[in-house]
Amino acid sequence: MDSSCCEEMSVEMVELSVKTPEPVRPAGVLQQNRVFLDFFWDLAKPDQEVRLKAVGDLIQYLKTNNKADELDYTFKRLVDGLAHTREAARPGFSLALGQVLSAFEDVPLQKLLDRIKEKHNLQTVKKKLFRNAMFGNLFGVLALQQSSRLPKEPQVVLGCVKLLQNLSQRKQHLKDLPTKTMMDILNEIPEDVFEEVLLSALQTDLASAFSTPEQLQLLLVALQRFPQTLKPKKLKKLLGSSTIINADNIPKLTEVLKMSARSVKKECVLPAVVLDLLKLSLKEDSFQLFWNTAIVNGMLKEQPGPAHYLSFRLLGSALPLLSAAQLKEVLSGEVMMQYGEHVVSAQKPDRFKLAPEMDVYVSDFLEVCQDADKQLAVMVGFSSLTNQGYPVVPSVWRVVQHLQPAAVQHYVDWLKNTFLQPQPDKLLDFSTRKQKDSQEAKEQKENSIFRLRKWIVSRLCSIIDNHLVKKSEDLIMDVARFVFFHAFFSTKKASADIPETTRKLSVPLDDRTRGVLVNSFFGLLLSMHHLPLAEDSGEGAAVNQKRALGVTADGTMWIDHLVQYAQVLLNQPKHAQSSKPVSPEQRQAWDSMLESVANLKKKAKKGPTAESGAFQQLFLLVGMHLFKAPEELLDIMKDLQSCVDKAQEKKAKKKKKKQATEQEQEEPEWVEVMVDILLSLLSQPSRHIRQVCRTVFTSICPHVTAAALTAILDVLDPEKDDEEDGAVVVTDDNKTQKKKPNEEEEDEEMEDDESDASGDDSDDGEDDEAMEEDDDDDDEDDEEEIEEVAVDQNFRVELMKVLQQQNALATEEDGSSDEDLDDASMMELDKGLAALFSEQKKKAQAKKDEKTKIQKEKTLVRDFKIKVLDLVEVFVARQAGSPLVLGLVEPLLTIIDRGMSSGSDQQEQDFLRRAADIFRNQLCRSKVYCRTAGDRQGELHDLLDKLMTKSQKLSDSSVCLYYFSASLYVVKVLRGAPPADAKEEPTADGAAADLRFMGNLDVDRVSTIFTEALNSFMGRRKSPLTAQMFTDLFTRFPGLCVKLLDAAVLHIKSGVRIHQQGQACVLVLRAMQSREVQQLLSGAPWTELCVKVSGQLAASLQQVGDTESKVVKEKVVKTLELCQFLVKHVHQQKLSVDLEPLQTVLKSLTSVIEFKKTGKLEDTYWAVVKHFGVVKPKVEKKKPENKPDEQQLLKKKKKGFLPETKKRKKRDIPILEPAAAAAAAAAAAAAAAGHTTFRGKPRADKGQATKKHDKKTKQKRPADGVTASQLNPAKKSKTTQSESNTDKKKKKKQKKA
Predict the structure, then answer these.
(1) According to the UniProt entry, which residue ranges have a biased composition of type Acidic residues (predicted)?
(2) Which of 197, 309, 371, 485 could form a disulfide with 154 if both were Cys (CB 3.0 to 4.6 A apart)?
(3) Residue 1040: strand, helix, or coil
C-alpha cells in the first residue's frame, strides 16, 4: 500500500490545480504498471534522446494494451505537462500529445482543445503560474498541429487560431511564437478551409500587416498559400492597395524592415519576412523599386548596425533568386559599397565580422547554380569591390572550387585582362577617410594599380593551387605562361606564336609588381609540382594506385613545359625582351642545361630510374632559377653538369666491369661536389628547391662517402656557428629580408595583404610591426644601459661645445643667458642642435639595425640547418645499414646537448626536436643497422666507453637519456645478429646459445663499463642516470644483464641513499622476472643468485626504521615486491634456499611498521608472509546500536517522508497567566545562567524568548523517552552554549534599561 500511495501522491504533485476530487482509480492502473508511469517521468528529462524514446515507447504501450482508462490518464498527464515548470519538459509532453493524437484518430481534437483551455485558463490561473499557463496553451496548439489532423476539423482550426491571437498579445513571454504557429497552421490547411473559416478570424491581423513584422509575414504566407482567395481586389479592401510593394507602402515596409532588423540583432540571422518580401517583389515585378527605395534609400540611411547587416544578408540570400542582369546591377550598387566598407572596418579586433556569413551565401549559391553566366557575374562582382585597388575578398577564396569549367575559364580571362589593362572606373572602388587624407591623387592611383595587380597574381596562383577547382591542362599552362612572361619578359612586338605578346599593358609594370610576379611564379611552380592528373583528382582514381604528381597527361613534367616555353621566348628576342639582360654566360649555362636534360631523357627511355628523374628536376629547377638569381647559380649549374656527367660515366664503367678495380674503390669526387651543390641550393628561400634536393639526395645516397657526409655534419656542428658564412648571405634590403623567412616556403598566401585593406594605410600596419619590434627590443635595450651611459656622456660633451660656440651657455662669471642672443645667433644655434641630435639619432638607428641584422642572420642560419637535417634524415632512413651511419652518433648528440642549453625560441626548439627525433626514433630504434663493423671493433668500444663516461658527467637527465640510447645502439651494432643456425634450432639449447651470442662484443670490457655506470648511479647522490635506462639494458641484452646482476644485488643494501636501494630492488626484480635471464642462469647459478638476494633482502629490511617518510615507505614496498617474487619462486621451484632469516625479519616488521587497514605497503606485506603460512588477521567490526536506526531514518527522510519517531506528538501544556509565564521563563533562564533575574525586563521580550526556546526544545526532543543528550552529546553542548549566550544578551539589555 505504501508504494501505491507514493505513486498517487507523485501523480497529484504534477497537477497544477484540481477543481473537483476525482473518483478513486482502480488499484491495478497505477500499482501494476510502474513502467507505464515511468514514461511520463522520462518525458520531462532534459536529454532529448530519452524524451524521444519515451514517446515511442508510450505509443507502443498504449497500442498494445488498448485500455481506455490508461488512454484517458495519458491525455490528462500530457495536458498537465504542457505547462511544466522545466523548459525542456514542455516540448516532450507536446510532442507526445501530438503523436498520441495522430495514433488514436478516434479521439476528437475538440475535446482535447477544450481540456487544454480549461486546464490552462489564463483568467483563473494564479499569478505566479501565469507564464507556465501561457506556454501550456501554446504547446497544446502545437501538439494539435503536429497531429496532422487539423485540416479535417475546421472548427478546431478556428479555435486554435483564436487562442493564438489571444496569446500573441503576450509578447514579453512568447515573442513571435504564436504568429509562427499560425503560419504553420496556414501552411497545412486547404484553401477552402481558409476562405470559409479563418479569413474572417484573421481579418484584423491581415489588415494591420504593416504594423509588425509578424503580421506582415502572416499576410505574405497567406498570399503564397491562398492566391485565389487573396486576389488584388481582396487586398485592396484589406490594405487599400491591390499590391504589397508600391510607392505608397514603401515607407511602411521600410519601418517594418527596421523593426525586423532590431528583433534579430542577437541571433545574427536574416528574418524570413524580409526574404519573403524580396520574393514577392520579384513576383510583382517591383524588385528595382523595392531594392532602391526600401533597401538603398531606406535601410542603408541608418547608422551602421542591424539595418546594414540585414541588407548584406539579404544581398547574399538574393543571389539564387536574381537574373544575370539583376546580379550585375545589385553587385555594383550601394549595398556592395557599404559591405566593402564594413569588411575593411571589421578587420580591427573585437569587431563583428559578417564576411564569413557572406562567404557561406556565395559558396552555397555557386554550388547550386549551374548557369556559368550567373556564376561569372557573382565572381566578377565581388572581385571588383576594391579598397584603393585591393579587393576586399581574400585572394585565396575557396568558393572558386564550385565554379563550372566555363566560368573558371571566363573568370581567369577577366583577371588577366584586368591585370593588363586595369580600369579603375569599372571597379567598385572606395577609400576610407584616413586613406583619402594621407595620399595624393597620382600616388594613390599608382598604388591602387599595384595593389590590384598584386591581388590578381595571387588569385590566379590560388586557382591553380586548389585541386578542387575544375580546370583543364590548357588553363593551367595558360596561367603559368602568363605569370612567367610578365615576371621575366616584356612585349617588344606582337607574335602569333606567343599569345602573351598580343595584349599590351596599359600601365607599365614597376619593380614592385615584378617582384610579386617572380615570387608568385616560383610558388606556382611548387603547386604544379604537386598537381595531380585531371582524372586522378576526381573520384575515379583507384585507392591503392600511386598517383602521378607534377606531370601532364602525356607524362611530361610541368616544369619541362615551362622550360620549353622559356626557350621559345629566348629564341625570339624580336618579339619578347627579357626584363634583365641575359649575358652570354647565362645563355651558355641555359643551353648546356637543356642538353643535359635531353641526354638524361634519352637514357631514361632505355631504362627509367628515380635517379635520372631527380636529376632532371634539379636541372630544370636550377635553370628556371637562373632567371631570378643568375649570378648565384651560374657556378652551381656548371658544377652540377660535371657531377652528373661523372656519375653517369662511373655507372657506365660499373656496368661494363663486374670486378671493382682500385680506381672504382676510391671515393668518387662527384658525390662530394653534388653534396656541396645541394647545400648551396638549400640556402635558397624556396620550398620547391628543398623538396627537389631531398629527392636528389635520396637517389645518390648509395654513393655518399665519408667526406660528403662530413660536409653535411660540418654545417650542423654548433662549434662552427661563427664560421658559417658561406651558405647564408644577408643583404641590407630590409623589405627583402622581411619577406625571406615567409618566402622560404614560397607558398605565399598573400594573406598579409588583408592588412592593406584594413581601413588604414599599409604604412600603419608597418608602423604597428615596428612598434612590436620596439617592444621586443626593450629588454635588450635595458641590458645596454651601461654602454649608453658612455655614449650619453660623449653626447653631453658635444652638446656643451655647440652651446659654448654660440655663447648660449650661462656661466657664473658673466651671468649671460639665451635671452641675450639675437635672431641670427638663435638660428645658428638651432641648426647646430638639429645637426647634433640628427647625428645622435642616426647612431642609435645604426646600432638597432646592426642588432636586427645579426638576429636575422641567426634566424636564417638556423633555418638553413633545419633544411640540412632533411639530408641527414634521408641518409639515416635509406642507408641505416651503412658503416657511415655510425659517424652520425656523436654529431647528433652534440647538437642535442647544445640545443638543450641554448635559447628557447620556437625555431630553436623545432631544430632540437627534429634532431632528437632523427637520432632516437630513426637511428637508435631502427631495425636495420650496420652488420659489417667487424673491422672497427676497437673504435666502437672506445666510442662506447666515451659515451658512457660523458653520460655520467652530465647534469641533465634528459640529455643523459640520449647518450645512454646511443650506447645501447653501439652495443647492438657490436653484437650483431645471431647466426642463422641458432635461430633454426627450436630447442632450449638453441635458445640459450642465441642468448649467449655476443658477436664482436668484448663482454668483459663492456660489462666493466656498465658496471661502473651502475655503481655511479647507486653511489652518487645526484646522478643523471635512471633506473629505467638500466631496465632497458637488461631487457635488450640479457647476456649483459647476467654480468651486472651481482653488482645490482649488492646495492640492495649498500645504496648510498634509500631511494637507490629501492631502485636496486626494482632492477633485480626486473632481471629475475626475465625468462632469458632464467635460461642463462639455470641450475646452480640461479640458486646461488637466490641465496644472495635473500641475504641482501634480510639485511636491507633489518635497516628499516620509521616508515612515516615517503621515501622509506617506497623503498619498503619495492623490497617487499622483490621478496614476494623470490619466496614464491623458491617455493614453486623447490630450490634449496634458506629463507628462515628472511622470514624472521619479515615477522619483526610488524613491530617496526605501523600497519593500517589497507594500502599498498600493507597488502604487499601480507601477500609475502602468506607464503610462510601467516594469514592476515581479520578485524571484527563493531556496529553501534543506534547508528543503523539513524541511517535508516535519514534514508527515509531523503524520500520526503517524516519517520514515526520524528512526528510531533500532542502534549498537555499547562496554560499559564501571562505574568506567571513570563516569571517562569525568566526564572528558568536565570537558573541556567546561575544569576538572579531582573523584573524590569519587558514582557514582550520574555514571551518572545520563551517561544523561541520552546521551538528549539521541541525540535531537539525525540520521542519514545530518548533524550537529546543520549542521541547526540555534541548537540547538547552546542545548545547549552547558545542558551548561555542568549542569557548574557538579555542581561546586557536589562542593564541598559
Answers:
(1) 743-786
(2) 197
(3) helix
pTM equals 0.70
* pLDDT tens string 475-511: 999 999 999 999 999 888 888 888 888 888 888 998 8
Give the separation between CA 443 and CA 389, rounded to whole angstroms.
12
Exposed/middle/buried for residue 271 (C-beta within 10 Å: 0-12, 13-18, 19+): buried
Which of 127, 108, 96, 91 shows the shortest CA–CA distance to 16?
127
Judge whether 1085 and 1049 are in contact, CB under 8 Å: no
3-state SS, residue 575: coil
Element (H or E) spanning 135, and its range? helix 130-146
Amino acid in the structure at residue 636:
I
Amino acid present at 367? E
Strands 428-430 and 385-387: parallel
- The rounded distance, in Å, linking the Cα atoms of 163 and 212 is 19
d(C-alpha 1155, C-alpha 1161), whole Å: 8
Give per-residue pLDDT as tens, 1176-1214. Answer: 777 665 555 554 454 554 444 445 556 666 666 655 544
Confidence band of 1251 (pLDDT split at 50, 70, 90): very low
Q: Nearest CA to 57 among 110, 107, 102, 96?
A: 96
Helix (H) or strand (E) segment spanning residue 1156: none
> Do the Cβ atoms of 411 and 460 come closer than 8 Å?
no
d(CA 1296, CA 1222): 20
Torsion over CA of 856, 860, 862 and 866, rounded to 10 degrees? 150
pLDDT of residue 451: 92
List of residues 6+ apart from 734 with CB closer than 8 A = none
**CA proximity to 615, closest of 527, 569, 677:** 677
CA distance 838 to 824: 21
Please tell me which of 794-803, 1123-1132, 1272-1281 the model is most confident about, judged by mean pLDDT: 1123-1132
The residues near 1069 (Cβ < 8 Å, ≥ 6 apart) are: 1118, 1121, 1122, 1125
Q: Return d(Cα 1145, Cα 443) in angstroms, integer.
A: 96
**391 grid coordinates:** 579587393
Closest of 1164, 1086, 1098 to residue 1132, by C-alpha? 1086
Measured between alpha carbons, how far apart are the two ends of the chain, in Å?
61
Q: Partners of 532 in the beta sheet?
A: 549
Cell 641527414, residue? 872
Cα gap 6→23, rounded to integer Å: 18
Helices 306-318 and 250-263, axial angle in degrees (round to 10): 100
Which of helix, strand or coil describes residue 749? coil
Contacts 24+ apart (CB under 8 A), 1100-1107: 1100/1052, 1100/1053, 1100/1061, 1100/1065, 1101/1142, 1101/1145, 1101/1146, 1101/1149, 1102/1145, 1103/1053, 1104/1149, 1104/1152, 1104/1153, 1105/1152, 1107/1152, 1107/1153, 1107/1154, 1107/1161
Question: 740 is written with which cell numbers?
Answer: 625571406
Instruction: Classify the phi-psi angles of 303: left when phi > 0, otherwise alpha if psi is within -120 to 50, otherwise beta.
Output: beta
* Per-chain mean pLDDT for the chain: 78
**CA gap 1218, 1220 in Å, rounded:** 5
Which amino acid is it at 957? S
Which pLDDT belongs to residue 21? Answer: 40
Q: Which residues of 932-965 are buried (b: 16+ CB within 10 A; e: fewer)?
A: ebeebeeebbebbbebbebbbebeeeebbbbbbb
Distance CA 392, CA 187 (A): 41
Question: 974-981 contacts: CB < 8 A, separation 24 or more?
Answer: 974/933, 974/937, 974/940, 974/941, 974/944, 974/999, 974/1000, 974/1001, 974/1002, 974/1006, 975/999, 975/1000, 975/1001, 975/1037, 976/931, 976/933, 976/1000, 977/931
3-state secondary structure 251-310: HHHHHHHHHHHHHCCCCCCCCHHHHHHHHHHHHCCCHHHHHHHHHHCCHHHCCCCHHHHH
